[in-house]
Amino acid sequence: MSPTEKTPRQFQAEVCKVLHILTNSLYTNREVFLRELVSNASDALDKLRYRMNRGEQPCLPDLPLEIRISIDKDAKTLTIADTGLGMSADELAENLGTIAKSGSEQFLADLAAAKNAQDENSPPDAANIIGRFGVGFYSVFMVAKKVEVTSRPAFGESTDAHVWSSDGLGTYTVEPAAADAPERGTTIKAWLKDDATEFLENFRVESTIRKHSAFVPFPVLLDGQKVNTQPALWREPKFSVTEEQYEGFYKALTYDSKAPLDVLHFSVDVPVQFSALLFIPDTAQDFFGADRDFWGLDLYTRRVLIQNRNQDLIPEYLAFLKGVVDSEDLPLNISRETLQENAVLRKIRQVIVKQALGNLEKLARDDEEKYRRFWTLHGKVFKLGYHDFAQRERVSALLRFNTSALPDAEALSSLDQYMERAPEGQKTFWYVAAPNREAARLNPHMERFARKGIEVLWLYEPVDEFVMDGLGKYKDWDFMSVETATDQALDAFADKEEHKAAAPLSEDDASSFDALLERMKEILEDRVAGVRVSHRLTDSPAVLVSPDGGISSSMEKLIKVMQKDDSVPVKTLEVNRDHPLLRNMLRIFKADSGDRTLAHMTQALFDASLLQDGYLKDPQALAGRSNKLLEEAAAWYVEVRKLSA
Ligand code: ADP
Ligand code: MG
């Protein structure tokens, strides 16, 4: 069926869902529909201008590029017209009848999240959600009971105009437009609902445009009067721009309702000419999830938009930056396809990286609180800067860590501060990966470091160990996991804490202990690579260790996950010869080397070490073994206390 027949067509199912929500459950901030329609009009004008700059001829090339809004109080209609790119009949059906699937899914998910975050009485705020996911147009149905979109394409074989029409309930029609249709571009006419007649008031529409669309780069005229007056802010000299203007521009650019954390505004002439206005948001983004592709800077040349969210202008680790870059040195007719290989862009990127790092260094130096905020919000992506070989030293200096020497989980240290605190002779950044501070503190590998008062970086995110690995060195110091520390690694550092040393073993007992270790290996068979005496433990009876110089257990786990390998790695069991449990096991062993309970205890000790290492392969068997031990212990207790039946 041709889309130009007057037969109603069904909206795609996703559109119906989105429409249903927009019309039924979003009541706050309905005014954002205007922002969406104006921004679509502005996009259409941008696209037209871009193609004209590339040498294409539109129909009526001399028509001014502008957006006209008009109000008809009697008919209760609001009309938004642009002289932009326009749409053919097929494009009307395609663009206003479907949504890119990911867009609608993300929209619905975000909406659900916003709903959950609010109390039931206040409906979710539309402003932050609409417009990000290719559903902006449909927001007009929050205020309109009927909408007509008349559009005439600026390019193409046929520049016939068509009308798309719908009440937003489930169907729409597309048919040829009347002869008096606009000469070029798109005109959207909305018949307002009875509860939305506020948008028939001139001042209401005007203030909404001033609030949400102040930075649209084309004239917006309301009943003939120009309402947007803001210049291209990034081209203005820094001293002439007020904080309010920066904030307004940032909010218009990002739809963020919070002011930015920091602003970077600069202009350079060598090696390339460009101006940049960049912001560090005061809100977190999820570049590993929903915001995966939602980054990059808007690229202009001589105030003409070339591309939204260009990702060649900044490396991924600066993805948190939002803003605009405008260069005189790019040709106006540049194609988006060739941007990637463009040498000018590469140079711009280098300058931006240096400026951004310089700005962060200044922040870290002058405003610790603000830098901490930056780190909390954006540290997760910024860390990925360890990839940037040329900037590795600078990125490393900007990293922050929670450590064993800090008073709480919120406190942060730089690598330089760690170095200052380290004792004479230390040349290694020691770290341990753990899900949280408490787990890090209880890690048996930490005991030796605690005893010697050597500070350890505590890594709470899986990526952190890759960062340590990737950095390799900082200022000549190595990075090393406490788990892979050799016995000798810390010999040079004396114990700080006086730990109550157990009585030394007699020569005889020492050799019996060696035999006990052999017996334990026999019991555990090839589940362990060996059993040996540990020098790293104070309070724990045993710990599993990787071969010296191997990788840490959390890194090993990550690799196993990636390789879909669920086997338990075979490690060496190290036991604490001074621990009361081991001393008693020695007594049992000396009395009877084949004792059954000794075997149970060895097994349980191994189970517990495996658990601490993060592996729980066979919980049923483990529970069975521990119950067996309890049964034996209870029987002895009854006997020892001479309790009656
Ligand atoms: P988005 O703007 O995120 O793509 P919208 O729902 O706002 O999503 O618009 C959907 C599509 O409809 C746009 O991508 C564009 O192709 C088309 N469109 C909307 N308004 C106009 C307009 N005024 N002129 C030309 N095309 C438009
Ligand atoms: Mg839009």
Observed structural traits:
645 residues, binds adenosine-5'-diphosphate, Heat Shock Protein 90, Ribosomal Protein S5, domain 2, 19 helices, 5-stranded mixed sheet, alpha+beta, binds magnesium ion, Rossmann fold, 9-stranded mixed sheet
Describe the structure.
The chain is an alpha+beta fold and 645 residues long. It has 4 domains: 9-226, 2-Layer Sandwich (Heat Shock Protein 90); 233-369, Ribosomal Protein S5, domain 2 (2-Layer Sandwich); 401-490, Rossmann fold (3-Layer(aba) Sandwich); 507-644, Up-down Bundle (Four Helix Bundle (Hemerythrin (Met), subunit A)), CATH 1.20.120. The protein is 37% helix and 17% strand. It has 19 helices and 22 strands. A 9-stranded mixed β-sheet has the order 1-6-5-4-7-3-2-8-9, with helices on one face. A 5-stranded mixed β-sheet has the order 10-11-14-12-13, with helices on both faces. Strands 15-17-16-19-18 form a 5-stranded mixed β-sheet. A hairpin with a 2-residue loop joins strand 8 and strand 9. Helix 2 packs across helix 5 (202-212), helix 8 crosses helix 9 (368-382) and helix 15 (507-524) packs across helix 17 (580-591). The longest helix has 24 residues, at 343-366. The chain is elongated, with a radius of gyration of 34 Å. It starts with 8 loop residues before the first strand and ends in a 5-residue tail after the last helix. The mean pLDDT is 89. Bound molecules: adenosine-5'-diphosphate and magnesium ion. Magnesium ion binds next to helix 2.
